Amino acid sequence: MAIALQQPEVDPGNGVVSEDARRQAHQARAERARLRQALDLQRENILSQRTSHPARRSALEAALAQIEGQIGALG
């Protein structure tokens, strides 16, 4: 996740972003988007499950809280 949060480096001399830095930033954004999509799918899967068993419901709620925490950390 630390890679996804890095900003491209700007050359202080001329304010230009290198092609390598631009590519890395693009890859980080793409990875972050894939991770967000995977978390959204997991969240929807959990929300679609119905159960009357208390232990199963508790496990689903815990998993949902964890996923929502990860989504929140992504921003």
Structure at a glance:
The protein has 75 residues and is mainly alpha-helical. The protein has three helices and no strands.
Q: How would you explain this protein's 3D organization?
A:
By secondary structure, the protein is an all-alpha fold. It has one domain (2-74). Helix content is 73%, strand content 0%. It is built from 3 helices and no strands. Helix 2 runs antiparallel to helix 3. The mean pLDDT is 85.
> Helicity range of the residues?
over 70%
Q: Rg from C-alpha positions? A: 18 Å
The mean pLDDT is: 85
Number of helices: 3
List the helices and strands and how they pair.
Blueprint: H1 2-5, H2 19-48, H3 54-74
Helix pairs in contact: 2-3
Write out key terms for the chains shown.
75 residues; single chain; mainly alpha
